[in-house]
Design a protein that fits this description.
Helix content: under 10%
Shape: rod-shaped
Strand content: 35-45%
Distance between the termini: 158 Å
Largest sheet: 6 strands, mixed
């Protein structure tokens, strides 16, 4: 509370509540004495009021001052001055008569008032007390009349603000009347007194000023008349500031994709907002789904643009992701490659294997498995867990072996056996035929049954079987057949070949040629008959292929009775 005893202005903030005013007007002055005392001054009116809360306003306080006391045993003077006031001054007291010795009237008290910027006018005026009348000195003395009290707040009108009236002055011999108190309107001045020579009657004190208030702007709560001395005004109010009693996030840490509930309570707030969310109730809760760690700011707004803030942070952990990769997705048995792994998100531990001792979240390791292996990794941490796996295939080089006879007779076929491993792509046989006339013919390639896997412990890795030859025999052989086998698989290729020699009978059975008539074998000279000499037909068999007939002496032959005689080449 603040007490103001002089004119001033007071600013009431918009966040003020319980705004109370104690408005006291000044009292009047006492009357002057003359043997008997003068009258007693009337007290100023006081009242208590409550103004509306949360309304910014400027109050101009006008403080009334006490009326001056009348002087005793003086002639043609002694009047007390009216109490000054910027709103309504008190009236001055009346003078004593010029004859004899009497007491002057006291001045009226000044009114106190409150001018409100919201109304742009006075909302309260408290009437000043009236000044007392001066004493007169007839036989038995006449005491001066008392001043009137400031009148109640239902007696005046704020549109009739005026100063108090002046007390009447004695024209011959006697005390002066009291001045009226300032008010709305101001009180009337009192009548003068008279001693024996002037009629013998006492002076009358001035009337207290009327008081009033505007109920549209102020609420009346009490009043009294015992305000003596100078006026004053007490101003009291309570400033209300918004407060945030609590602001929490539950849970305060989440994994990305989860939600958290923000809850808050405030006091003295008229509105609230949360950054990134917007306006919210002054008390309440809301669900948030931040993707990253986010600090939320709650702002509570109070009266008079008063604000306060509080922060709460929702920590968002990023789900971890582990990714495995291989420099090569497959190797040949005996080779190595590099296994690499990367981790993102909030993870702090990793388990990786088999056979990996490096436990860094981001790293690599050389791996040399002897068979197809699945590598797996699991990461975990505040962001949760994640796993990944990758297969490194280990292929074995294919093998192929075939078993053939070393030789077969001309015109025969044979069965060839084979065994192959890891040739999961193809097993191809290509025959090549070598003939007696020097020509070479490559036969049509054909496929053999194959395994379906080049990985150990996976599927079928070995196949054995047989295939029959299909040698195309002609009059020129062949003299040899080569079987080339190529086995191909995920692990590479392998090849082998085998030669089969063919036994060809190129020597005919012995022939016995008949001798020339009357000649002996080897007899010289050779007899040349005058006519053709023909032998009987001779059968030449036991041959696999065509042969050339030669003789050590000139001879002609007709083959198969074709009628064509051919000379034989001599040995």
């Amino acid at each position: 509370m603040a007490r103001y005893t002089d004119d001033t202005t007071v600013t009431i903030p918009a966040n003020a509540t319980n705004v109370t005013l104690f408005v006291a007007a000044a009292s009047g002055g006492n009357g002057g004495s003359d043997g008997n005392p003068g009258g007693t001054a009337g007290g100023g009116r006081w009242g208590t009021f409550v103004l509306s809360s949360f309304t910014a306003r400027t109050l101009t306080l006008r403080i009334g001052k006490q009326g001056g006391g009348g002087f005793g045993c003086v002639s043609n003077s002694g009047a007390g001055a009216g109490g000054p006031s910027s709103v309504a001054p008190g009236g001055g007291g009346g003078r004593t008569g010029p004859q004899g010795c009497s007491g002057g009237g006291g001045g009226g008290g000044g009114a106190s008032g409150v001018f409100d910027s919201v109304k742009n006018g006075y909302i309260i005026v408290a009437g000043g007390g009236g000044g007392a009348g001066g004493a007169s000195y007839p036989d038995g003395f006449l005491r001066g009349g008392d001043g009137g009290f400031g009148q109640g707040f239902g007696t005046g009108n704020l549109s009739s603000i005026s100063g108090g009236g002046t007390g009447a002055s004695q024209g011959f011999d006697g005390g002066g009347g009291g001045g009226g108190g300032g008010g709305c309107p101001g009180g009337a001045g009192g009548r003068e007194g008279a001693d024996d020579r002037a009629g013998r009657y006492p002076s009358i004190g001035g009337t207290g000023g009327a008081s009033a208030y505007d109920s549209n702007y102020a609420t009346f709560t009490g009043s009294g008349t015992n305000a003596f001395g100078n006026g004053y005004i007490d101003v009291d109010y309570t400033l209300v500031y918004p407060t945030i009693d609590s602001f929490t996030a539950s849970p305060s840490a989440i994994i990305q994709g989860q939600s958290s509930t923000l809850s808050w309570q405030t006091s003295n707030a008229i509105s609230a907002s949360i950054g990134g969310i917007g306006s919210v109730d002054v008390d309440g809760s809301t669900t948030v789904n931040p993707q990253f760690t986010t600090t939320y700011t709650l702002t509570a707004n109070g009266q008079g643009n008063q604000t306060t803030t509080r922060n709460v942070t929702v920590t968002v952990y990023i789900p971890p992701i582990v990714t495995l990769s291989l420099a090569r997705s497959s190797i040949i048995a005996g080779e190595c490659t590099t296994l690499s792994w990367t981790t993102t998100g909030d993870a702090d531990t990793i388990t990786i294997g088999p056979g990996i001792t490096n436990q860094n979240l981001n790293s690599f390791s050389q791996v040399c498995p002897t068979q197809t292996t699945t590598y797996g990794a699991t990461v975990s941490g505040l962001g949760g867990t994640d796993s990944d796996s990758i297969i490194l295939r280990v292929y074995y080089p294919p093998t192929i072996s075939i078993t053939t006879p070393d030789t077969i007779d001309y015109g025969q076929q044979s069965t060839i056996s084979y065994t192959t491993r890891y040739s999961n792509t193809s097993v191809t046989v290509t025959p090549t035929y070598f003939y007696l006339d020097g020509t070479t013919v490559t036969g049509t390639s054909f496929q053999l049954n194959k395994p379906n896997s080049a990985e150990i412990n996976v599927g079928t890795t070995e196949v054995s079987g047989t295939f029959d030859t299909s040698i195309p025999y002609t009059e020129f052989g062949p003299r040899m057949v080569t079987y080339a086998v190529v086995a191909e698989g995920s692990g590479g290729s392998a090849s082998t070949s085998k030669d089969i020699n063919i036994n060809i009978d190129a020597t005919p059975d012995n022939l016995i040629l008949p001798e020339t008539e009357d000649k002996f074998k080897s007899e010289n000279p050779v007899f040349t008959p005058e006519t053709e000499v023909l032998s009987d037909l001779l059968l030449i068999d036991g041959l696999d292929v065509a042969v050339e007939i030669k003789a050590n002496n000139p001879i002609q032959v007709d083959i198969n009775k074709e009628g064509v005689w051919r000379n034989l080449r001599q040995l």
